[in-house]
Write a structure and sequence with these properties.
- The protein has 588 residues and is mainly α.
- It contains 27 helices and six strands.
- The strands form two sheets. It has a four-stranded parallel beta sheet with strand order 4-3-5-6, sandwiched between helices. Strands 1-2 form a two-stranded antiparallel sheet.
- The radius of gyration is 26 Å and the shape is globular.
Amino acid sequence: MEQLIAIIEKGQPLFNAIARNKYLKAIRDGFISVIPIIIFSSIFCLVASVPNIWGFYWPDDINNALWKCYNYSMGILAIACAATTAKHFADAQNRDLPKNNQINFISCMCAAIIGFLLLSSDTIATDAASGFNTTYLGSKGLLTAFIAAFVTGIIYKFFIKRNITVKMPEQVPPNISQTFKDIIPFSVCITVFWVFDIVFRAAFGFCFAQGVIQVFQPLFTAADGYIGLAVIYGAMSLFWFVGVHGPSIVEPAIAAALVANMTDNLAAFQAGQHASAVLTQGAQYFVVCMGGTGATLVLVFMFCFLAKSQEMRAVGKAAIVPVCFAVNEPLLFAAPIVLNPVFFVPFVFAPIANIWILKIFIDFLGMNGFMYTLPWTVPGPIGTIMGLGFQPLAFVMLALILVVDFVLYYPFFRAYDAQKCAEEAEISEEELAAKNAEKAAKLNDAFQGKADAKSVAAGAAAEAVKADAPAAVATEATTASDLNGKRVLVLCQGGGTSGLLANALAKAAKERGINLETAAEAYGNHVDMLPDFDLVVLAPQAASYLADLQKDCERVGNKCVACRGKQYIELSQNGDKSLAFVSEQLSK
């Protein structure tokens, strides 16, 4: 097993390079930016549809009002995604351009929207009025939206890099000069999309968006099979196991299918047909990643309630709340699960077993697939039941998944528990008690905000004995002076893990009277925020983006650093160490 892991680790540079690919990152970040649209629209979808399960139907005027809000948000999802993807792709292109000659992402977003509309919509004309055909403006047009965004970004970079623009005299205000600077790349973009649309429709008789769907439909169908699902979600867990954020690599390739299949399932259900798609966003959030990547929900309860090892029980108690809300980094790095040979098999194969069980229930028992989108932080069991529309079979499937995950993890959990107990047996009873009291207090303080006061006091007293008091006072004063008025931004993949360190820093600074401002955000949403911060810290799962982040920070003159797994957890647990770490980075 260790040899297998060593082989996988050798491929980590390649995995990191894939995760940093600017096209994949633009898709991921652009898609994340439109998640609020999906969640917001699904609220109206839930309110309109779920009562039908119990035989209640809204009056027509209320029903139409609910679906109007859904259609006017989810129905134009691809338009929004064309803009957000173009924005993030422009940010990536700007890393390779001089500071004083950057792509105007607003202009780029506008060009991508117009280009997407040209490629995906037909004009509907009647005697009274005219309008757009909206068939491909929603989830069905996502692939075309990505293509429009990339073509726009490439054209803009070509002209901006070579200064092929309309140049205005220095006396002209910068905002007006920028407008003229954008005229050539903007015009070329729209002309390219317009000509291509005319040629494509003349050749095939339908719009480009429809053609893209026809080309990729076989791949979507294959991905929805048992082998395809195993490859997708096995790879996602495998990448995470070696410390690379798996969804960053896998999700961009399936993002369009995840949302489109949810829309198709809902449409089929409303038409009285079987909602048969398995590869959906809801399935990924609440079945595959129940408790986070690796389906670790049952594992954290094992750590918390079944472990004989005091260290494992301390980790479990500290991680159980975050894991219930799908933030499982505290468990992945503190247990650890990442690069721990003991947990390799269940971590990779539990998600595959979960998605296969869902597919069996859909294919053979007639259960409808996921139709309703909920935030990924909804606890897995709740998200499963609600996302499947409270179907009776959903309760049976959920129980079966939890049992299967327990069976898969239990023998490996027991082996690790025995290993940790053997290690603890070698430590004297007094040392063990002190070690675990301190660890439990720190973990609870970092992840749940419920540190045991007695343990904290004991730890503080022990530190006072070990350290020279005057020196400690001097160090604290130095740290305070270095940090007062500073601002620190912590980044991770989804904005969940980054909150652990940001909150720990804020709490430690407040307790010590230090004026330190902290914030947590998802990587990809940071570019416009950078000028407002002095230091940016990357969480472990986003560490592969350090090179790109350094380029972003160089443009605005601030500093950045990436953390390793155990180091990040330790900093999240210890206020003094986290403040000292930030002070050290700022002083470099």
